[in-house]
Design the sequence.
């Protein structure tokens, strides 16, 4: 079994005489003609139908079951179909997007289409943005639709079938896949599987975070000693919550804030959550009562109030 493998619907879909990458059809892959226990195998799924329940979806699903490194994986296939899942993870890319689109006109209603192959694009000003988008939605080919209304924003991201590429784009795509597969995967040391996976939500740019970076590193170290895999996540990782067993929020929480959305989503996914949504609500309501108490105290010196600084939420 080769260490690299490309899956297509038909061999006619991949016409690159210079490529030495083994090709198989989706039907052959599903029939286990390329089954292997080699976990180093990297599988690139280029099937046209990647919808849930489609042939391409099952190729990725079985690839993961066979311990192959599949691109795209099932989680990405599910996320890229729903804006509600992938959009929260793209929110922090706005500054990078504005920098990448400085050369474009920002007239109301203006649109722009960006095509990305394995995190690379022919448009040099947008290459950093392309890499970041690929990190969040690792797909062989992505089409990103931008719209301007004073400022450029990402309107939609979708999978791009290779059958929709023109001749020049196919040449660029073939070059990108060769470059991607030429990269050496990082080797991980053999270790026992952790008992639990804990996500710690933090914001490295927060001025006064609940936990310092040193404390967060200590959490990771202690977790390793206890057999718990601890991963520091950020706002962009919203779509990955289902991968974990528990969520520990170490950002300052608010109701009208992504921290509350994280807590709600984690609770819905059945994770252990600290702070849970009810605690965030109660803590916020306590602060409101404290503010009212202080305002009333201005009018009534006899009003007994609880000082804000005496309460830890």
Sequence:
């Amino acid at each position: 079994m080769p260490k690299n493998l490309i899956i297509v619907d038909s061999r006619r879909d991949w016409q690159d005489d210079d490529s030495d990458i083994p090709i198989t059809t989706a039907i052959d892959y599903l029939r286990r003609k390329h089954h292997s226990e080699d976990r180093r195998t990297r599988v690139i799924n280029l099937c046209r139908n990647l919808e849930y329940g489609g042939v391409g979806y099952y190729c990725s699903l079985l690839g993961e079951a066979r311990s192959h490194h599949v691109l795209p994986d099932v989680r990405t296939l599910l996320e890229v179909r729903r804006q509600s899942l992938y959009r929260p993870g793209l929110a922090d890319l706005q500054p990078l997007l504005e920098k990448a689109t400085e050369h474009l006109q920002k007239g109301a209603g203006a649109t722009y289409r960006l095509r990305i192959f394995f995190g690379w694009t022919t448009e040099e000003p947008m290459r950093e943005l392309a890499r970041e988008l690929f990190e969040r939605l690792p797909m062989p080919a992505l089409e990103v639709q931008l719209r301007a209304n004073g400022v450029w924003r990402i309107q939609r991201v979708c999978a791009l079938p290779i059958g929709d590429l023109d001749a020049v784009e196919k040449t660029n795509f073939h070059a990108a896949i060769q470059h991607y597969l030429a990269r050496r995967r990082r080797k991980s040391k053999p270790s026992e599987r952790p008992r639990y996976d804990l996500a710690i939500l933090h914001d490295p740019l927060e001025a006064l975070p609940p936990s310092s970076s040193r404390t967060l590193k200590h959490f990771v170290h202690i977790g390793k000693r206890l057999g718990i895999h601890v991963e520091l996540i950020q706002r962009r990782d919203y779509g990955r919550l289902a991968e974990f067993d528990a969520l520990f929020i170490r950002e300052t929480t608010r109701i009208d804030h992504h921290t509350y959305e994280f807590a709600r989503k984690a609770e819905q996914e059945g994770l252990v959550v600290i702070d849970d949504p009810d605690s965030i609500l109660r803590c916020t309501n306590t602060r409101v009562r404290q503010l009212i108490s202080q305002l009333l105290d201005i009018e009534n010196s006899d009003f007994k109030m609880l000082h804000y600084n005496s309460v830890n939420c």
